[in-house]
Every structure is written in structure tokens, then in C-alpha cells.
Amino acid sequence: MRLVHALGAAVAATGLVASVAKATLTMSLVPVGISAAAKANDPVLNNARSFDLKVTQTGEKWDVTTLQLNLGLTGGLTGSFYTPGGHSNINFPASPAYDTSFVTPRFVESSDISHIDILGTSDYPANAGLGTVPTVGPTSLNIAWGDHNASDPGTTGAAGTYTVAHITVVGNTGGFINGYSAGTSGNTAQTFTNLYLPILGDVNADHIVDTNDFNIWLNNGGQGNSGGPPLLAQGDVNQDGIVDTNDFNLWLNNGGHQLLPPPGAALGSLVPEPGTLSLIGLAGIAAVRRRRI
Where are the domains positioned within the chain? Predict the structure, then answer.
């Protein structure tokens, strides 16, 4: 599991983070196709799906995000986060890469990664310990990260949509992402609650694999081009860019599986303002370059 550069595709499946005043930060989870070449290089990816966590920023720059995600492992759901074998933290492969990772929008503009801060574990929903060692495991993520240069001109990009995390899951499971995000204009941090990473076969994202998903597949058979952008909402279960019998077989093998959202929880303490990120670093939380947890 690495905290590294990962870039992805276009926006879909939005979870709201509304700002208080003149600017907004909106989070979205975007399906990313896994190339045939990547699958040939590592056959594990034949049983994987990949997503980008993106932030759309207007009027302020992304500063920090916290994230908690536990994969569902009951009722026939199995899987883990993908970590490629044999990869070096120094000789990182060319984009696109599919390992689960956490970044800043700066990667859109520059290869300089010295500014990323891994702040610790997420304190959503209630002071779980911001500043302690983050938990990044085979089936669980609990992390807070940000950019200690976010207030400097140009360091996190202009208004637009940027990748801040990349999540690849091997197996048929999914999960719900909870956390909050803040920008540099001083607005109160806002939550994103139960942002759904769908289980395999749940193309309409209603938390269950059923005949509704089959009907979507049936009505969209043949759409897309092999290797093109994922068409998850049209029945592209395996996210290879085409709606075909492979997707039907995956739906059939996963029929009846469901994953219900956990009970809601209150917002935890606010994330640090941009100026305090450097102070946190002085308190012992170092900026992290390419590293594996």
C-alpha cells in the first residue's frame, strides 16, 4: 500500500461536500478502467475494480481530506485493497497505476511530491486520533492527509476536478467512505457520508445485486468499446468499457449480495486550517514522500 501519485478518469457518482460560503468542495468516486496490459502484467487485476476519489473545487483550493473505509466481508462478500507486488517506492511505474494511494492535486501540475503531509488517522466521526499513525491495511483505510503548501499560489491547482486518492479492490466486495474535506478559504470542513464504493454487480448503486441491475444490463448490451471508459451505470460490471456477457456472468454469480450503509455518525473535530499544517509537521508528523504502509 503506497502513498503515491495516481491519476484517473472523468467524474461520476457524486457525494456532496457543500461549503458554508463563497466556495465549494465536492467529492466524487469515479470508476477507472483497468487496461488489458495491466491485467496481463498482473493477473490479479482480472478480478479487480478501480476508482478515483476526486475533489471538485470552486473558489478555494483543496487543503486536507480525511477518509475511513472498511470493506464489507459478510454475506458472501470477500476481497481486499490491491497492492502490486515487486514495485519499488523509488522506481514507481508510469501512470496509470492501480495501487491504492493518497495524493494531492499538485500532481496534476508537477512531479514534485515533497509537499504531501500524511497527518495521521482520520478523526471522523468523533476524535479517533488525528495525528496518530494512520491505519492502511488489506481491508481497512483510516487516514488523514493534506498539502502543507496549499496556501501557496499554484500548489494545488485552480478551480477544477482533481484526484486526491485512488482505490482498487480485488474481489466482489465494496464499502462506504466517510470523512470530511476542507479548503484554504477558511470555510468550516464539511462531511461526505456513506459515499458508496459498489459491490460487484450493483450497477445502479442501490446496495443490492438484483433484477434491476440485470434489466439495466439487458437494455444496454453491446454498448461501449473494449478498453474504453467504464460504463458502470449502464451494466458494465467489470468496468472494461463494454457491456457484454462477461458482465452478465458476474451479475449472475453475485445475485442477492448486498451491502447496507452503516448508521450515520456526527461530524468529528474540524481539520486544521492551512497555516496549522506546517505546525503539525513541527509537532512530529513529517511530510511523506513515496512510501508504503
Answer: 2-199+259-292, 202-258
Identify the DSSP state of 160.
E
In this structure, what are the phi and psi dihedrals at residue 55, rounded to the nearest 5 degrees? -120, 130
Cα–Cα dist 259/237, whole Å:
16
90-127 residue pLDDT tens: 444 444 578 888 887 765 544 455 667 888 888 876 55
- CATH architecture of the domain with range 202-258: Orthogonal Bundle (1.10)
Task: Please state, in angstroms and as integers, the Cα–Cα distance from residue 102 to each residue in 53, 64, 243, following that order.
Answer: 9, 11, 30
Beta-strand ranges (E) seen in the chain are 2-3, 14-15, 24-32, 48-58, 62-70, 79-81, 101-102, 116-120, 135-136, 140-147, 160-171, 175-183, 190-197, 291-292
Angle between helices 245-254 and 211-220 (to 10 degrees): 180
